[in-house]
Every structure is written in structure tokens, then in C-alpha cells.
Write a structure and sequence with these properties.
- The structure holds two protein chains of two kinds.
- By secondary structure, chain A is of the alpha/beta class.
- Chain A has 31 helices and 25 strands.
- By secondary structure, chain B is an alpha+beta fold.
- Helix content of chain B is 41%, strand content 20%.
- Chain B has seven helices and eight strands.
- Chain B is globular and about 55 Å long.
- Classes of the chains: A alpha/beta, B alpha+beta.
- The interface between A and B is large, with 61 and 59 residues.
Chain lengths: 801, 217
């Protein structure tokens, strides 16, 4: 048998077709896993394989689509072994020893965290088990297919790469709009699969060949790998309660011929296709001239859903998720207040960032843990791709491993130690990488010196198999006030990175203006000049309007912005800048506002509450006075209204939002004086439960009422909750559960508390809970809503009137 | 199938059945509904299965469903439709995102999403009944796992039979909760005769006194 990789991309290769409907005709019951038939119906499985081998396919799948621990908790070894043994037997019987046995791997049927309850590493291990068994008993390649969640696809691909040396093919399932179920697009997904080391990739299932055409074009536009196309025999129809596929072999062949001509290298079928579909298709396509896939050179940094293309419009890399020089941010990291960190990301997204830099390095925290938590949280609320920023290679590796998409690493530099620590990580996980033009001797004064280092980074990366289009070099911005030539050298370096080295260029911009007045002005001008010299990406604060204006303007002037569309889009509705500045001045000069903060809170006017609090503080009002005479009484009025059922949940929460905004202003101003807390309460949604909006409502209210809330999040195991209570000496714990099935986990948690830390008081809440239910699981108290929890906390900590 | 719902439905999910008129809030609710309509991608799958009986309990596609309440609902039926529907993952993402900045916005999104998936499923239900009628079959009200004495564990059977992971992007976690969270599974009986069964609604629910969403007086 010729090695598969010698034939791939040099000649047509053909996969097999559907199996489910064929086995159902032979008696497979609805809901039954076909995989067990390897053990119970070996003849039928050999017949299935033989049908496709006789039809002429080169690659045929083992009957192991659902074979994994999730579906077969008692073990999978026998099923996989038999699947491969029967495949070998079929190959002999049909005299098709040239055909490749593909170890077929389908989805687990579970959803990965943070959306679901399957941890990423557990998913990797589930797939790894199948791969190890399949490879050991003689499969010729691994075919991961029908993946409809790009995160799970990553887990499977990683498992295959880490556990065998076989070629790995992967196909995913798109909906009619060209998205996976987790929102991944061809542009966001393909660069990830490609950079993780797949040998061929493509599309299967869900759609017929004609419905796939547009998606195939999009995949082809971004991939340098051979393209696999395995469609269904049309869209599924329901006939008499059964799912049927109606595209006939002849019509299927016409469509597949069209796809082959447009450019695909591996062709086969999926649901509803039969050996006859495959036979006719092979006959027609084999007669066509074969065209290998073309190499592409674009660099995409991607998230699960989005792709940021480097080049063209200047990429904005938001720099705000970084503790350097930010007291409030550092404190948030130390306190574990990750929501604050995440909000910095959302703010930058609104301001126009394309990528978010993520740096959480402060002494006194477990950087690896915090980094991966922040990435997970960010990826669950924003679709912006991330730039992983750490000086610790172990942190970088943990982060890029669990990241969903294709990340950018910030950074490697010309030091030997850095090159050989960071580049292998970038290579293995397919991350693009920022390279700093400095080395053991520091930052060269000249562009010549920086270019030499840049060249060394590119060459070393090549040794690790990293193409130079995946490298973005940073020419390094130094301070112009301490060296008059600093900016010129940087600009020259940027120009030569593009022209001589032929790679992308990035800069952090704001260093240039250290020690000078009106820094924003210098930064914006410098950015425009760097763009003129070819800068592709800028690491900046996107909340800085002047900087963003300079960037959008320069993009328009340099012709990066086709038809100035982005410029127009940004400024269409903008007030003339001169007026904006005047208006701001007026606001600054305005006399202190004596408006009614109390009313703002009661009526839930968030923006007004925030503005009013700031101006009241500025005009000399005492913060504690504002809290005691305005905020607390206003919250109390609304809270009492809620209890009396004259105020309802939305209004209660609007007031809570407004109060929270006011408290945030106060907290910012008082950051040095420290704030007093009425007590600390630990909150968690129990293990197995992924609904946490109720718990989060309780949290916001408790915080507004002056409590410190330690929020462990959702799906939290009993051990974690109890350990946190022990570690932080927590007296009051609030547990939330939504369903009867998860109330069991609540009881487990309470039981563990009673054993380990009986003095803890536990209050419970959640949709299905009642006082009786709470009593029966041994809780100390039950709260039917968030206000009741606040009232209980007040009594518990002795704050009742 | 377009997805829509009424402001009144959203108010019910906000626990505001008895609240007075509030034009400002209603406008916010309408805005939230429209916002979601522009962004969500609902999906569904359903199939008709044979229904037999064993010791007075329904057996759907060979799987026993031990529930007196479901049995009453399926009485006289010879087939059963299983359905799974969802508003999709984007709704969850939007709710999660809103929680970081505004809990009131999150609560509105949460309630509107719940109302939208319910009405989307109502429309799907009507379509299923229309199709059944063409084959001379009459539908019964739909009944969901977790209602009455129909244990939530039957979700595993529903998922094995329908494969909503594949066809609608709904997965079941170890605690039998569905993701995306705005998802519905249900059983609809089909009979050869017109008729009704005891409809499962708020009035017949044993938990109505403790329920925030109870829509009776």
C-alpha cells in the first residue's frame, strides 16, 4: 500500500458514503448505536464496508462514529478493535488491499465548558482513548467528522496529533448560513484546524452538495490543505416519520463533478448516499484533470466565531487587559474579580478593537489559573480573537492549548532562551506569534540591529516548522523625549520588516510619548506615521478616541480602507470634533449638579446615576454621606416595593444597575482609602447546574447592600465550595440550583459542609426550591428571591434596625 | 420559521402578570424582542414514532415511558411525535454578556428568550399537527419531560431517538439540563380520532402555588 500522504493532493481520493440508513434497513433500531453491531452483526458490517470498497472508494470509515466513553461508559476497546478487524477482513474479501482504513471519530454528544459541562482536557482524553486503540490495531488514518462545535473539533484534533503518527483528516458540519453550531465560520475555523496540523480538512453532513457550494468556496479561499467534501444526498426530508434523502446517484454525481472542477481533492458522501452514489461519482470525477490545492499566504487570528485578518485594514489590538500601572485592575486580579477584567474586554470591543491582548501577570496570583479562567470567560461573552500575553512559557502553553480558535502569542524575542521556549509552543498549537526585535544585548539602537534580530526570529521559527506569514514582528517603540532619534529608528524598522523581511509588523504605540505633555496627540501622530511605513497592527487603547480617529483616517488615506467604508461607518453619525471638544469643556465648567441621586436610583437611570455621583463627589460631597442618605435609602424603597409586589423584577434590577454604577464611581474615587464591607458571603451554583442568572442577581443585590461576595460561579463541585469556605473563613454560604436533578448536588454540598465545617450557615434558592424542600436537604434557610437573601444576610450579620 | 412573541408573554416570564401598565418597560421589552429576533437562529427536529402500550404505560419506538400523566395525555393515540427545539447558542451568549454590565438587561433578555422559544415551539407544534391532519391523524397537547410525574430522565431516551445534538445543536448534560438553555423537548400524541386530554397547564400543576410564572389568578 502506498502511503496515503504520498497520494494526497497528487491525485483524486474518494471516501465512502452513508451507513446509518443502510444499517437501519437491516434492522438497526431507532436510538440504537450502530457501533455495537461490530460485536453483534459482524457480517452486516463487513457487507457495509464491502459495498463501498466495491464501489471504488480509497478511504473507508470504521463503524466507530459514536464509539467513545460518553456513549459507551463500560469501555470501547472491543468495539474499536472489531471495527478495524472487520475492515481488514472486508479489504481482503474485496481484494482492495490498496484502500485506507479511516478510524472514524464523531462528536461526543456533550458540550464543552464553559457552555456545557465537559472540561476541555476530558474531551481530549475521550478522543485520545479512541485514537490509541484504533492506531494500535492498524487503522491507516484518523478521520474526525461531523464536528459541529469548533472547540470539540480542536479537542479531537489535538488528541489525534498527540496520540498517533497517522495522517489526520477532519471535516465539520455547517448549517445553511455557513456556521457551525457554536457560531464558527470557515474563516474562523479553517485557520485553527490547519495550524493544529490536520493533513486534510473539509465539510460533511447536514447539507447536500448544492447547498454546500458557497461554503466550499469560502473554505477553499482560506485553506492551503487538500479539501474534503462529503455531502448528504440532499437535505433531509421526513416521510412517514422517517428521515429520507432524495438526491439520486445521477444528480449527486452532477453536483460532485461541479465541486471537483471548482477545486476539491477528496470526495465522498454522508447521510443518504449509497455505494451507487459513490460508484457513479468516482466514475465521473476520476476522468477529470486533478488540481492540487494552492498555498495561501494570509494570516488570520481567530476566535470561535470571528477571524481577524492581518493586513489590509490596520488591526486594532486592545491593550487594556493588563495590570501594568493600573491599581484598580491589579486589585481586581488579586480579589479574583474577573468580571471587572472581562468588562475591560467588552468596552474595548465596543470601541472598535479587533483583537484583545490578555495579560494578567501580577505577583501573588496563580497566573496560569487566572489566565485560563479569563480566556474562558472572555470567550464566552466576546467573539474577538485574543492575543495571549505572558512572559511565562508555561502560562502561554496552558492558554493556547485551551483557547478556542487560532490565538496570537505575545511574545517571543531574539534571546535563545525565549526562542526555544516559545516557538515550540506556537508550532504545536498553531499560534501566530509576535516577535520582539530585541535579544540578550537588549534593544539595538539601529534599525539594522533590530532587523538582524527579526531575521533570526524568522529563521529559528522556520526550524520549528512555522511559516513566516505567521510571524508579526514588533519594531519596538522607545521614548522620543529621551532620544530624539527613537521614533525614526522605530519607523525605519517597521518599513524594513515589511520590505526586507516580508513579514507583518506590529507596534505598541504609547511608549513614544513618555514624559511629554498631551501624550495622546503624539501617540496618534506616531501611529499614523507608522502606518505610512507599513504597520499592520497596533497595540493601543481603543477607548482613546483620538488614537482611533488617527487610525481610521490613516487607513482611509493609505488606501487600506476600500471606498473609505470603515471611515464612513465610524464617523457617519459623529458630532463634528470641534463641537465635541467644546461640549466637553462646557461640561467640565458646569457648576456642580445638585440633582437628585435618590430619584435616579429609584427610577433605574444608570447613566444619570453615574454622572451625578461623579459630580456630587467632585463638588465636595462626602462619599459615605451619599451612600447613607441617598443610595441605601433609595435601594430600600425599591426593595420594599418589590416585597410588597408594587415593584417587579425588571425595575428592581434597573435600580440595582443604577446603584451599582454609582457605587463603581465611589469605589474608583475611594480606591486608596479602602472600603468597608458588611461581611463576606460565598455564592455558588451547584455542580451540574449551568444556569446562573438567579445567583448573579443575588450577587448584584448583595453587593449593592454593602456585602463582599465571593462568587465561585456555576457547576461548582461540593469540595470546591467547602474548601473555599474553609480557606476564607466564610460564615454564610448561598447555594443556587435550578432543577430537581441538581438539587441533589445541593444536598451533597450541604452534607459535606455538615461533615467538614458544621458551623457554616447555608441559605439556598432556585426555581424548584421551596421551604419544605430546603428543610428536607438540611439547609439553614430558604430565600424565595434575591431580596429575601439580602434581608437574611442583614439579620445574620446583625444589620437589622 | 420566523420567531416572535408577545410583550404579555415576556411580562409573564418576568413575574409581572399582576403588574400594572408600564409603557416604558413595554417599549424596552419590545426592543429586546426585536434585538433577539435579529440575532438568534432557532432550530428544531421532530420525528413520528410508533406508540404501543405496556401495562397501561406508553411505549414509544420500543422505549417505555413510565408516567401516568403522560399515559393520560397519550390515551387513544397510535403514534407519538418527539420534538426538540431551541433558540440557539447565541441567545445564551447574549444573556451571559449582558449580565456583566446590566442585570436588568440580562433579565429582559432571559425572559424574552424564554417567551420566544416557547412561541417558536408553538408554531412548530401547529405545523406538526397540520401535517398529521393530512394523514388523518389528530394531535394531543404537547407534554414535556419534567412535567408532572414524567421523570426528567426520559430526556436520555428522547435524545437517543431524535439526535438533537446533530439536527438542532442541543445537547444534554449529565444533570439532564439542555444546552442551549432556551431549548424544549416534548411529546405530542397522534390519534385517529379528534379529542382532547387533560391539558397540562398551570391549573393542573402541583407546583403552581410556589411558581413565579403561574399565570392564573
Amino acid at each position: 500500500m502506498r502511503p496515503l500522504l504520498e497520494r494526497l493532493n497528487r491525485e483524486w481520493l474518494f471516501c465512502d458514503g452513508g451507513s446509518g440508513s443502510i444499517l437501519q434497513r437491516q434492522g438497526l433500531a431507532p436510538g440504537e448505536f450502530p457501533d455495537t453491531w461490530n460485536l453483534t452483526h459482524p457480517d452486516e458490517i463487513i457487507a457495509l464496508y464491502s459495498g463501498y470498497l466495491n464501489a471504488g472508494c480509497d478511504i473507508f470509515n470504521t463503524n466507530t462514529f459514536g464509539t467513545n466513553r460518553c456513549h459507551f461508559p463500560d469501555g470501547i476497546e472491543d468495539i474499536v478493535k472489531e471495527a478495524v478487524r472487520l475492515a481488514k477482513e472486508a479489504r481482503i474479501r474485496t481484494h482492495r488491499e490498496d484502500a485506507y482504513i479511516a478510524l472514524d471519530i464523531g462528536p461526543t454528544g456533550r458540550l464543552l465548558k464553559p457552555y456545557g459541562d465537559l472540561p476541555f482536557e476530558e474531551a481530549v482524553e475521550i478522543f485520545a482513548e479512541v485514537v490509541r486503540i484504533g492506531a494500535a490495531c492498524g487503522a491507516d488514518l484518523v478521520l474526525i467528522e461531523t464536528m459541529n462545535d469548533s472547540y470539540e473539533a480542536k479537542a479531537a484534533l489535538l488528541a489525534a496529533k498527540e496520540n498517533c503518527d497517522l495522517p489526520v483528516f477532519i471535516t465539520t458540519t455547517y448549517d445553511a448560513q455557513g456556521r457551525l453550531l457554536n457560531g464558527a465560520s470557515p474563516e474562523s475555523l479553517i485557520p485553527m484546524l490547519e495550524s493544529l496540523g490536520a493533513d486534510a480538512l473539509g465539510i460533511n453532513c447536514s447539507l447536500g452538495p448544492d447547498e454546500m457550494a458557497e461554503i466550499i468556496d469560502r473554505i477553499r479561499a482560506v485553506t492551503s490543505l487538500p479539501l474534503i467534501v462529503n455531502p448528504n444526498a440532499g437535505l433531509p426530508k421526513t416521510e412517514g416519520g422517517r428521515t429520507v434523502y432524495l438526491v439520486k446517484p445521477e444528480d449527486f454525481t452532477v453536483s460532485m463533478t461541479r465541486i471537483a472542477k471548482a477545486g476539491a481533492q477528496v470526495l465522498g458522501g454522508c447521510c443518504g448516499t449509497t455505494p451507487e452514489h459513490i460508484r457513479q461519482m468516482i466514475h465521473a470525477v476520476r476522468a477529470l484533470p486533478f488540481h492540487p490545492v494552492e498555498k495561501k499566504h494570509d494570516l488570520y487570528v481567530t476566535s470561535a466565531q470571528n477571524a481577524a485578518k492581518i493586513g489590509g485594514l490596520t488591526t486594532v489590538i486592545g491593550e487594556r487587559i493588563n495590570p501594568t500601572g493600573k491599581k484598580r485592575f491589579r486589585q481586581a486580579l488579586l480579589d479574583g474579580d474577573l468580571d471587572y477584567v472581562i468588562r475591560q474586554g467588552l468596552e474595548q470591543e465596543d470601541a472598535g478593537a479587533d483583537i484583545l491582548d490578555v495579560n494578567v501577570g501580577v505577583p501573588g496570583i496563580n497566573e496560569k489559573e487566572v489566565m485560563t479562567s479569563v480566556i474562558q470567560k472572555l470567550q464566552s461573552v466576546t467573539s474577538l480573537p485574543l492575543q495571549i500575553d505572558s512572559s511565562d512559557p508555561a502560562v502561554l502553553e496552558a492558554a493556547v492549548r485551551m483557547y478556542c480558535g487560532r490565538p496570537l502569542i505575545n511574545s517571543v524575542n531574539g534571546k535563545q532562551e525565549s526562542l526555544h521556549a516559545v516557538l515550540p509552543i506556537a508550532a504545536k498549537y498553531g499560534a501566530a506569534v509576535v516577535g520582539l526585535c530585541l535579544d540578550e544585548n537588549g534593544i539595538p539602537d539601529s534599525a539594522d540591529g533590530r532587523i538582524a534580530i527579526g531575521r533570526r526570529i524568522i529563521e529559528t521559527a522556520a526550524q520549528y516548522g512555522i511559516d513566516k506569514e505567521n510571524i508579526i514582528l514588533d519594531g519596538l517603540t522607545l521614548t522620543v523625549s529621551s532620544d530624539a532619534n527613537a521614533a525614526r529608528v522605530t519607523l525605519e524598522t517597521v518599513r524594513r520588516i515589511r520590505e526586507e523581511l516580508g513579514v507583518h509588523a506590529v507596534l505598541g504605540v504609547s511608549n513614544v510619548s513618555f514624559g511629554l505633555p498631551e501624550r495622546k496627540l503624539l501617540n496618534a501622530s506616531f501611529l499614523a506615521m507608522a502606518m505610512q511605513n507599513g504597520l499592520d497592527a497596533a497595540i493601543i487603547n481603543p477607548n482613546d478616541a483620538l488614537m482611533m480617529s488617527a487610525l481610521r483616517s490613516a487607513d482611509a488615506l493609505l488606501g487600506n480602507d476600500a471606498s473609505c467604508l470603515r471611515y464612513i461607518d465610524t464617523f457617519r453619525d459623529a458630532a463634528p470634533m470641534s463641537m465635541t471638544l467644546q461640549a466637553k469643556k462646557k461640561a467640565d465648567d458646569a457648576p456642580s449638579n445638585n440633582g437628585n441621586l435618590y430619584d435616579c436610583i429609584v427610577h433605574g437611570q444608570t447613566a444619570e446615576a453615574s454622572f451625578l455621583t461623579a459630580s456630587l463627589l467632585e463638588s465636595g460631597n462626602d462619599a459615605m454621606d451619599l451612600i447613607n442618605t441617598q443610595l441605601i435609602p433609595a435601594l430600600d424603597e425599591v426593595g420594599k416595593g418589590f416585597e410588597a409586589k408594587t415593584v417587579f423584577l425588571p425595575q428592581l434590577l434597573m435600580s440595582a444597575d443604577a446603584a451599582k454604577a454609582a457605587f463603581a464611581v465611589i469605589k474608583d474615587r475611594m480606591k486608596d482609602s479602602g472600603s468597608s464591607s458588611k461581611g463576606t458571603i460565598l455564592l455558588a451554583t451547584v455542580k451540574g447546574d449551568i444556569h446562573d442568572i438567579g445567583k448573579n442577581i443575588v450577587k448584584v443585590l448583595l453587593e449593592n447592600y454593602g456585602y463582599t461576595v465571593m462568587d465561585l460561579g456555576k457547576d461548582v463541585p461540593p469540595e470546591t465550595i467547602v474548601q473555599a469556605a474553609v480557606d476564607h473563613n466564610i460564615r454564610l454560604v448561598g447555594l443556587s440550583a435550578l432543577m430537581t436533578t441538581t438539587v441533589a448536588a445541593m444536598k451533597d454540598t450541604i452534607d459535606l459542609f455538615r461533615k467538614v465545617r458544621p458551623e457554616t450557615t447555608i441559605i439556598v434558592g432556585g426555581a424548584v426550591l421551596t421551604q419544605e424542600y430546603a428543610d428536607s436537604i438540611g439547609a439553614d434557610a430558604y430565600a424565595k428571591d434575591a431580596m429575601e437573601t439580602v434581608r437574611f444576610a442583614d439579620r445574620f450579620f446583625g444589620y437589622t434596625d | 420559521m420566523p420567531v416572535d412573541c408577545t410583550i404579555k408573554e415576556v411580562r409573564r416570564y418576568l413575574g409581572m402578570q399582576k403588574a400594572g401598565a408600564d409603557d416604558v418597560l413595554d417599549a424596552e421589552i419590545q426592543k429586546t424582542i426585536s434585538f433577539l429576533q435579529d440575532r438568534v437562529h432557532p432550530a428544531s427536529v421532530y420525528r413520528v414514532f410508533p406508540l404501543t402500550w405496556k401495562d397501561g404505560m406508553p411505549v414509544i419506538a420500543g422505549y417505555l415511558f413510565e408516567s401516568h400523566d403522560l399515559a393520560r395525555c397519550l390515551k387513544g393515540c397510535s403514534k407519538a411525535v418527539l420534538l426538540a427545539s431551541t433558540l440557539g447558542a447565541e441567545a445564551d451568549r447574549l444573556i451571559r454578556r449582558a449580565q456583566l454590565r446590566s442585570m436588568s438587561e440580562a433579565a429582559l433578555l432571559q425572559a424574552a428568550s424564554a417567551a420566544l422559544v416557547e412561541s417558536y415551539t408553538d408554531a412548530l407544534n401547529r405545523q406538526i399537527l397540520d401535517e398529521a391532519k393530512q394523514e388523518g391523524l389528530y394531535g394531543r397537547p404537547r407534554y414535556s419531560p419534567g412535567y408532572g410525574d414524567l421523570d426528567l430522565s426520559v430526556q436520555r431516551i428522547v435524545f437517543a431517538l431524535l439526535q438533537p445534538e446533530k439536527y438542532a445543536g442541543i445537547v444534554l448534560n449529565q444533570s439532564l439540563l439542555m444546552s442551549p438553555s432556551k431549548s424544549i423537548t416534548a411529546i405530542i400524541g397522534l390519534a385517529e380520532t379528534e379529542g382532547s386530554c387533560i391539558k397540562f397547564d398551570c391549573e393542573t400543576c402541583s407546583r403552581k402555588s410556589a411558581c413565579t410564572y403561574y399565570n392564573g389568578e
